[in-house]
């Protein structure tokens, strides 16, 4: 194992970025100068999003492998660009690293970032690397592009629009509960074998989420442009309320339409947790939540992996869920509060928002 | 004083970004969606740079006021864009905040960032805000623009080019030494009054550096495009070696040509430090180091605040300083190693690189 200080900042960066080849025409110069240089064309707009991830706030290295962490750190940024109906193109990666990390550790982390970039066609163009007194710090900024008339904001939902969500919800949150449970059970037992059999999907959703590029492609192929869209990082309930607030509308979603995987349901049962609460408020699913005009109903139904869960209303009706027995329950944003002290956090929470 | 958790992430962001009005045509949508949206024109390239600043690695809140810290955090990014001969346009600001900070603290920090943006004509377009277990974390990414034929890289220096530097060197480093000395002297004395009389320039250079936009403008007005350029953040010696390595050249600089302020010299004397070592290796000056063709000599001499300190050579001559008595001393990159543990750091170091 090699100490990072033996390489120095520039030696480490050389090693991490060795062999990187830009794949996007817009990337002119990547790592190695005061700034990276891109060229974006007049017929497209440029998108930028950023995420800051801090050890023991957003991730726990007891059970998160560094390569997975790198992969996820990149993908959550791509997800934000897709949620604008754009294409991620470049990222910068800043790392703060405390002395307990070796060069090999950072290479693992970076290999996950590089793998995500390779799979999603994104170039690493810059960054900053520093010592940290405070565990691992990861700050990634992602640039993307989209033709101006294709960009989808959060504020375009209109009454009677259909509310759609991709994939299923609550699994990443249940994966986190499972990992936390096994962490507690393993304390002080070096030979402990965590019990994940039959729950692999939950673990994968928590540790290795994907951004829904496939849904963006399917919508484009079907000729559907959503009226509003965002990714589900803090929880469905909170995200729905964002769209409704910014669009100045209300909404109704049906409890029995919320897509939930079988493993999620089994895990909720085991933990004696309310399944719908977990699906509404558990974060980190990185699914797409979007609205489409009622007229797109037939086309939307044909897209695999997308479910219509409700509809947009006039604002005075507020935001509510209609339960299986027909009762209306107001939605509340119970998602993770990233500014609360995690130790004292009572709500459901998602470590990476 | 208000606890940050009482506002929540979105409440805090609303408060910090209240009243922000974009001033750049390229900024289409700022804070409030999954990503910000910009539009860059076909006749210009886009630049991106990023800096990660960690408490007690890059700054010490014992003597750095939060507003100054915010100002400097933004300006160091602008400096990187000017060092490409570009214009900074947008930044994203990510903050990790531990529970000892109140809303008012973060407002002070942000007011410094906003002031810098206002003075330099830069828009705040996004960010991320999170709890931190680990003191204050600041990650800023800056986007800029430049016509393609104006961009200056580090690799364009050619033998016989003149080496130029703006302003003076070593003052920010001496300011840091002064602040550290007064911190030690004040320990345990609540009524301690730090002694900064006659050394205000050093304090200002350390706490409130400026990016040399004026030099970029003067060069443009004189019709001079540097062949290579970067900003002096890690120390002149280290930066010269970057330019020579990337340009595949050597260099000679003259000890007696290195610009040093009177206060810097007095402070070095007081601390019994070698003045030229401090000027060569002390970081954070944020001056511009650049090379110009020999034919620009007459024009360069007319630009106020720019000094010719040496010339570029063939690579086999290496990088050296010629002392007052005519001796050649090889340059060494003794700048701050941002990956060494600060507590055990023996070299001169600059807290913000």
What does this structure look like?
In chain A, 32% of the residues lie in helices and 23% in strands. The first copy, chain A, is built from ten helices and 13 strands. Chain A has helices spanning 4-16, 66-82, 103-120, 171-186, 200-207, 213-221, 236-247, 262-270, 275-281, 297-301, and strands spanning 27-29, 36-38, 45-54, 87-97, 123-131, 137-146, 162-166, 228-232, 250-254, 287-292, 306-313, 319-322, 328-330. Chain A has a seven-stranded mixed sheet with strand order 8-10-7-11-9-12-13, with helices on both faces. Chain A is globular and about 65 Å long. Chains A and B meet through helix 1, strand 2, strand 3, strand 4 and strand 5 of A and helix 1, strand 2, strand 3, strand 4 and strand 5 of B.
What are the SSEs and their pairings?
The structure is a homodimer of 353-residue chains.
Chain A: H1 4-16, E1 27-29, E2 36-38, E3 45-54, H2 66-82, E4 87-97, H3 103-120, E5 123-131, E6 137-146, E7 162-166, H4 171-186, H5 200-207, H6 213-221, E8 228-232, H7 236-247, E9 250-254, H8 262-270, H9 275-281, E10 287-292, H10 297-301, E11 306-313, E12 319-322, E13 328-330
Parallel strand pairs in A: 4-5, 9-12
Antiparallel strand pairs in A: 1-2, 3-6, 4-6, 7-10, 7-11, 8-10, 9-11, 12-13
Helix pairs in contact in A: 1-3, 2-3, 4-5, 4-8
């Amino acid at each position: 194992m090699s100490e990072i200080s033996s390489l120095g900042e520039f030696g480490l960066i050389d090693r991490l970025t060795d062999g990187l080849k830009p794949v996007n025409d817009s990337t002119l110069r990547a790592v190695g100068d005061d700034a990276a240089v891109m060229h974006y064309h007049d017929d497209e707009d440029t998108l930028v999003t950023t995420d800051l991830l801090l050890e023991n706030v957003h991730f726990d290295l007891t059970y998160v492998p560094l390569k997975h962490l790198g992969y996820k750190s990149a993908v959550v940024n791509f997800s934000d660009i897709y949620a604008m109906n754009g294409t991620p193109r470049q990222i910068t990666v800043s790392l703060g690293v405390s002395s307990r990390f070796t060069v090999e550790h950072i290479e693992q982390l970076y290999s996950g970032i590089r793998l995500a970039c390779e799979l999603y066609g994104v170039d690493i163009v810059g960054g900053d690397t520093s010592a940290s007194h405070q565990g691992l710090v990861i700050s990634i900024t992602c640039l993307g592009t989209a033709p101006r008339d294709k960009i989808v904001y959060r504020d375009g939902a209109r009454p009677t629009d259909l509310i759609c969500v991709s994939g299923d919800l609550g699994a990443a949150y249940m994966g986190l509960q499972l990992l936390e449970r096994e962490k507690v059970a393993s304390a002080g037992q070096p030979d402990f074998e965590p019990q994940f059999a039959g729950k692999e999907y939950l673990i994968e959703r928590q540790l290795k989420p994907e951004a829904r590029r496939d849904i963006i492609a399917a919508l484009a192929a079907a000729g559907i442009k959503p009226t509003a869209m965002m990714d589900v990082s803090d929880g469905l309930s909170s995200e729905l309320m964002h769209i409704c607030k910014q669009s100045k509308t209300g909404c109704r979603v049906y409890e029995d339409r919320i897509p939930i995987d079988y493993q999620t349901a089994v895990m909720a049962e085991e933990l004696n947790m309310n399944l719908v609460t977990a699906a509404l408020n558990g974060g980190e699913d990185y699914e797409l939540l979007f609205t489409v005009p009622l007229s797109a109903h037939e086309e939307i139904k044909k897209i695999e992996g997308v479910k219509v869960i409700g509809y947009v209303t006039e604002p005075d009706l507020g935001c509510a869920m209609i339960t299986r027995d027909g009762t209306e329950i107001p939605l509340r944003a119970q998602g993770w509060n990233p500014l609360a002290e995690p130790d004292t956090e009572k709500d459901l929470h998602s470590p990476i928002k």
